[in-house]
Amino acid sequence: MKKRYLILNILFLFFSWHSFAQAKKWKTGILRDEFIYQKASFPQCHAATIAETKEGLIAAWFGGSYEGSNEVCIYTSRMENDRWTDPVQVADGVINDTLRYACYNPVLCQIPDGELLLFYKIGPNVAGWTGWMIRSKDNGRTWSKREPLPNGYLGPIKNKPVEVAGTLICPSSTEKNGWKAHFEYTHDMGKTWAKSPDINDGKTLSAIQPSVLQYKDGSLQVLCRSQNTTINQSWSYDNGRTWSNMTATELPNNNSGTDAVSLKDGRQLLVYNHVKPPETASEGRGVRTPLNVAVSKNGEQWYATLVLEDSPVSEYSYPSVIQSQDGMVHIVYTWRREKIKYVKIDPSQLKIQKIKKGQWPD
Question: What pLDDT does 279 receive?
């Protein structure tokens, strides 16, 4: 009997050590992991975004009683003295004295040597929302009156714009007649606009909420959320004016938002839920956990590197990621719809393992 207990204890210790080792393995490179706030005036939050100003980091998100409620507003927090400030409301969905809608999906964009822009949406629902923006000349401390985007324009729908050849390329999408991705362009900080055609038909392959990646040879790649159980992609070789036919990548998608950033060392870094829903899942929906980080040199072969969250409880979703001037990577994301989480990463410390046939290692 004692021998049996000894064997069981040894097995327990082995598997406990193995689990600990695996958990630690997928955390290498994380320097900071914290909530932006502990208490707030709103019970729910979602769709965070992050940018770097001359004074440091700033994050934004929407908060309210629940997504779509007409009192949902946009809030911001700035990092001051190495701490996040209390959330401050900077935008609401008041249309007039008798009409008010919800706010959705803020996107921060720091123009180099220029203004800090905050794009967001207002509407009764996703199909009926309209695009708006506000500007800050003091790194997010104060903001201008809101400006409507031109009719038919939504601005960046979830993920940050990129500047290419003097033009700000805003990755956008619509969900009215199938999920379709397109791009909106401005060369004068949002004063005038142009847009591309849809880059997919919304039937064969769906795509919304693109992330734009830049390569040293000048090519661009977008990675998109889909209803196809895969992250879908398209490429441009003319500074984003035209795009290739959309294709599915080997990476899974659970019908939830992703984000990606091009690193200074030439690698691409992607934050996403590595979840493959069953083919029978309605609209390709899957659970929004775990939340993962992968890297790639060419946008085709990806390598597993971090697991930010792996609890089966609730959701960890809608990441936003940037690389700051000092080379560090900064990520914000939804934590159970209750709080916004912030993670700081040193990309030079990342350990990688090849993702084969869409399967996360171990």
Answer: 83
Sign of CA pseudo-dihedral 292, 296, 300, 303: negative
Between CA 315 and CA 310 the distance in angstroms is 10
Query: 40-73 in b/e burial notation, b at 16+ Cβ within 10 A?
Result: bebebbbbbbbbbbeeebbbbbbbbeebeebbbb
**Whole-angstrom Cα distance, residue 53 to residue 57?**
6
Structure tokens of 206? Answer: 């769906």
Based on DSSP, count helices (H) and strands (E) in the chain, helices before strands. Answer: 1, 26
For the chain, give every domain's residue range: 31-354
Nearest to 28 by CA among 303, 272, 264: 303
CA distances from 80 to 23, 55, 77, 86 (A): 31, 8, 9, 10
Let me know: does 225 contact 275? Beta carbons within 8 Å: no
Q: How many CB atoms lie within 10 A of CB 287?
A: 15
Report the side by side order of strands in the sheet with 339-345. Answer: 30-35, 339-345, 329-335, 316-323
Sheet with strand 259-262: strands edge to edge? 259-262, 268-272, 291-296, 302-309, 353-354
pLDDT in tens, 266-306: 999 999 999 999 988 999 999 999 999 999 999 999 999 99
Give the pTM: 0.94
**How many Å apart are CA 182 and CA 207, to the nearest integer?**
9
DSSP string, 207-272: -EEEEEEE-TTS-EEEEEE-SSSEEEEEEESSTTSS-PPPEEEEEE--S---EEEE-TTS-EEEEE
Q: 10-62, pLDDT tens digit by residue?
A: 434 333 334 444 567 899 999 999 999 999 999 999 999 999 999 999 999 99
The CATH code that applies to domain 31-354 is 2.120.10.10
- 110-124 pLDDT, tens digit each: 999 899 999 999 999
Q: Which residue has the tokens 């089966």?
A: 312
In terms of phi and psi (left: phi > 0; alpha: psi -120 to 50; beta: otherwise), the region of 184 is beta
Residue 7 confidence class, pLDDT cut points 50, 70, 90:
very low
Nearest CA to 54 among 170, 139, 125, 135?
A: 139
